[in-house]
Design brief:
By secondary structure, this protein is of the alpha/beta class. Helix content is 42%, strand content 22%.
Length: 450
């Protein structure tokens, strides 16, 4: 898909330029020292664009100081302000950073007023040479769109096209668009619909790809690779962010792998493949464990998502951390990798499905530690979808597919959700996982067949 080039500071997104790798700080932006230090670590790890959350006007001031300190070190990596709800904060941030990420539909419940505020932001961005990312996520589309189209990939595409068209009406083209979802099927379908719609209308805005709230560990990496690679393999996507509930520096090698693979700089370590009917048998000679899982996810994720095959059998080997060859044939590890891939493509569930945001400056508790503990204590709940979200701003909307949700409120308190309904509020963090499990057990007992 040919896209126009969008200038973000000293780099370009789209227009035939290499895929841009980006990530996001999980520090509090108000903590200038910690944010600067993390940005430097990200830069050294290869981040080409860095996003920071900006929840208040005071954070805009902190952002300006962060930028000043980074530029003083010679680090020119473009900074992106992540703004929710407030057009005033977005406008102020647009005077400071190279790009602003917003969901314009959240600017006001009245769509016409949201449009007015978005037009004001566009005017400021034009004046300062600031790019905009229209970032719409599954589950946070707003009532007007979901009442018309449901909470669907079609709704995501229609919402994006409204704001894209408003950019065009304002003669503003320095725009990137994203339609993220935790569900890989929804994510891929939404981007495909948007790519088709833009092509039909002669629009060529670049696309930012990501599987939001992907989780951590092998699951987060495989899930991200499945969704992102399915689109990059079709020429859809100009910049990527891999969202992991880990140190954000860990996201960068995964995103770099995807950018390099689909930029033609590296190839799969698969050494052989046989396809019989709807089953694939693949053999690998991978240089590392992580390379194996990423190659495996990219080689077969799209085929599974599109139901071109139903099964994959993994053979071969990879080089372990000890430098020795680790055989896969018939091993529990090969079965585990296959299970993870099938779950990421939503073809077969062998464990709970977890939705977990990567955390940012709005997160007021130890998200990674809590998520790992929730996973440990709920591992027996096969097929259940459980969300662990950093804050009340994004949490309730973006855990759209979850059966249960653990959402941080701040001040040491948590809300627990049953689907989209809060069933407990202001639960102390020290008790929240216990209360979550009690509610799940009670619900399972009440709904169990007699």
């Amino acid at each position: 898909m040919e896209t126009s080039a969008v200038k973000v500071g000293n780099i370009f997104i789209g227009g035939g330029h290499p895929i841009v790798v980006q990530t996001m700080c999980n520090t509090h932006t108000s903590d200038i020292e910690a944010s600067v230090a993390q940005c430097v670590r990200m830069y050294e790890a290869g981040a080409e664009m860095i996003r920071l959350t900006v929840p208040s006007m005071d954070d805009v001031k902190a952002l300006a100081e962060i930028k000043k300190q980074l530029r003083a070190t010679g680090m020119e990596t473009p900074l992106v302000a992540d703004v929710h709800f407030s057009s005033e904060i977005a406008i102020a941030a647009a005077e400071v950073v190279e790009k602003v990420r917003i969901n314009p539909g959240n600017f006001h419940k009245d769509h016409s007023k949201a449009c007015e505020q978005f037009s004001k932001l566009v005017s400021v961005c034009r004046e300062h040479g600031t790019a905009i990312r229209i970032g719409l996520n599954h589950g946070s589309l707003g009532e007007r769109i979901t009442n018309l189209y449901g909470n669907t990939p079609l709704a995501m595409k229609e919402a994006a096209m409204e704001w894209i068209n408003l950019c065009l009406e304002n003669n503003f083209r320095n725009t990137v668009v994203s339609l993220k979802a935790s569900n890989t099927i929804v994510m891929v379908e939404a981007y495909r619909l948007l790519a088709d719609a833009m092509k039909e209308n002669g629009i060529s805005f670049p696309l930012h790809l990501g599987v939001t709230e992907a989780g951590n560990g092998d699951s987060g990496r495989i899930k991200s690779a499945v969704g992102i690679s399915a689109l990059l393999s079709e020429g859809i996507g100009d910049t990527v962010r891999v969202s992991l509930t880990e140190d954000p520096v860990n996201e960068i090698p995964v995103a770099r792998y995807l950018a390099d693979r689909y930029g033609g700089k590296l190839h799969s370590s698969m050494s052989g493949i046989e396809i019989s009917g709807r089953k694939a048998r693949a053999c690998y000679a991978a240089p590392s464990r992580e390379r194996l899982i990423l190659d495996f996810a990219c080689d077969f994720g799209k085929m599974l998502l599109d139901k071109k095959i139903d099964e994959v059998e993994l053979h071969g080997s990879y080089i372990g951390e000890n430098g020795k060859e680790t055989p896969l044939d018939g091993s529990p590890e090969a079965e585990y990798f296959t299970d993870e891939l099938m779950q990421a493509a939503r073809r077969r569930f062998y464990k709970p499905e977890y939705v977990a945001c990567p955390g940012c400056g709005r997160t007021m508790y130890n998200l990674e530690e809590t998520f790992n503990e929730v996973k440990r204590r709920t591992s027996h709940l096969k097929g259940m979808v459980i969300a662990v979200m950093g804050c009340i701003v994004n949490g309730p909307g973006e855990m759209a597919d979850a059966d249960w949700g653990y959402v941080g409120e701040g001040s040491g308190k948590v809300s627990i959700y049953r689907k989209k309904t809060p069933v407990m509020r202001h639960v102390p963090e020290s008790e929240a996982i216990d209360r979550l499990l009690e509610l799940i057990d009670k619900d399972n007992t009440e709904t169990a067949p007699i």
